[in-house]
Fold TauD/TfdA-like domain-containing protein.
Amino acid sequence: MSYPTTAALLKLDLNPGKPPILYTETPDDVSAWAAEHHRALRALVTEHGSLLIRGLQLWDAERAGAVLHRLAPARMTDKEAFARRQEYTPGVYSSSAWPPNQPMCMHHERSYVLQPPGLVLFACLTAPSAGGATAVADAATVLEALPAELVQRFEQEGWLLTRTYNDEIGAPYAEAFGTDDRRAIEDYCRAAAIAFAWQPDGSLSTRQRRPAVTVHPVTGRRCWFNQIAFLNEWTIEPEIREYLIEVYGAESLPFNTRFGDGDPIGPDVIQLLNDTYTAHTARERWKAGDLMLVDNVRTAHSREAFQGPREVLVAMAEPLRQAQCPPTAEVSAA
């Protein structure tokens, strides 16, 4: 079977409200197909922000992993993870463990680390019976749609992420940092501009200030690039939020976000952010075997609530240095 030419990859299905979709015949060797078209596919992702590829039949972890390895030969380790993941092969993970009935709102993967991924790859082994789409939203468009005063404040101050690691909610610190050696964790935090404090009960609390707006390393467009809404207490379902506050206290939630100066972010701001994302969301339901590539700076992504089994593999690549993707606010340990 002959592979589609690079020119054929330009024949995309572009429809409003959906990500760009590339339909392809199933190649005999999907790994070789990915290697042959790697650059062309990456160029399309830069141009459009995301790309859903349908027809590769990535139905098992071995086949999907081979393609992810070809498209992202230098995959990133998931340090500072906020939720548990299973690692299938080096740098290829399961989706974050998150209740199926709870959506994961729009965010940019690991935008709280010093070197976030520039590219995120998803491979759907099993599609859910309902819901579960990995929806996307253009970060430059979202930025332009937000109130100028709010954007200006976040540009000047950045945003603050606070975390309290425990063994019940989210990833424990040993899993998030890849070690239970306190000295190694402290060294990592210092190098990553993260303020830390060990609590009397043995838990770890951290604070880190990060930029909310950045510049795309290729196009130069300003992008709304953060996880302010996703990791904020007001995005959590009310009954779950009340439970977490009762158990951990308002100042020791597993994760929360604030304005860069430490002021709380009210529910009205979080609702505005999520509504703006919703107004600019594109979605396509997963089909088993699909592959999706997302420019992590240009495009936010979400995971919608779902029913039935859902298995999606994730890989992250192309770590961004500040020189490539300059922030608009100071990065610090707060």
